Amino acid sequence: MPLSERQLAAFADKHATQIPYDTSPRHLAGPGDARHVTHGLAAAGWNTVSDPLSAEIVLVSPDLRYRLQFDPQSRTSAWWRLRAEPAGRKLGWYAEFGEHVPAEVLAGLTDALVAQAPVGSTSPLGELDAAGWLIDGRGIAYSDHPSCKVERLPEQGAGTVPWREQVPVAWHIEARDLPTDIGSRGTHLWHAAFHRYTPERLVTAFVTALTDPAPLQRGLFDRTATYGVTQKPSPLTPQQTVDAHTTRVKALRAQARSARRQQKNHVTAPAHASTAQPAARR
């Protein structure tokens, strides 16, 4: 079912009454509104296949290859699960995300999935390097706020390859609260895990959204991942945050329609007349 004006109005009604607070760093901002993710996919033509009266939401792409599950009652630490089925020569892959992953950061990945366009020429660790994160020789990046790390997990035998080299890898991202005791690792807050066949451009899109220095907007009483966040009144008005969401989902809808139109034209394009063979003479 496509995204309706009524659903956009419901989003606007909630956020129009909340005074936005700039919240940083991003990885500690808390889950936010899941509709940053689900509205974008619905606008791009993904269909809801879950029980409408259930807390669980399951969205499936128009070509049935991709499936996103959001389960806030999950008994595991993963509330979001994204799966891609094998298609032709394209391998299947899987990614999962914890309860407190910011919806806006996850939307960076799902928007890139819908757009089907390269995010850029950089790799995930290249983005982290450009953002000023500390990267050690093992391919682990640490934020300047020492509570988030991005770990590159190469295949067995590839652990000695420098991180700038291209090798098949999986990725694991973890956010923890700052330790309160000497020797403590701190409390686990959320994680993101990417199967090794996850397209690198999607991992890069997630990391790009994660390292964006712009704060995320949260309501005064919204849940954050920890008390260690910094919050101050945002210069944005409630209406501006609503308008930004509406503009984004409408752009995704237009991108998806354009992509489907191009695909249809490609499939139905007539063969060139020059390839026709003349009829044989008797």
From TrEMBL:
Residues 268-282 have a biased composition (Low complexity). It holds the Pfam family SPDY. Residues 254-282 are annotated as: Disordered. Residues 61-119, 151-216 form the DUF317 domain. It comes from the Bacteria. This is DUF317 domain-containing protein. The lineage of its organism: Bacteria, Bacillati, Actinomycetota, Actinomycetes, Kitasatosporales.
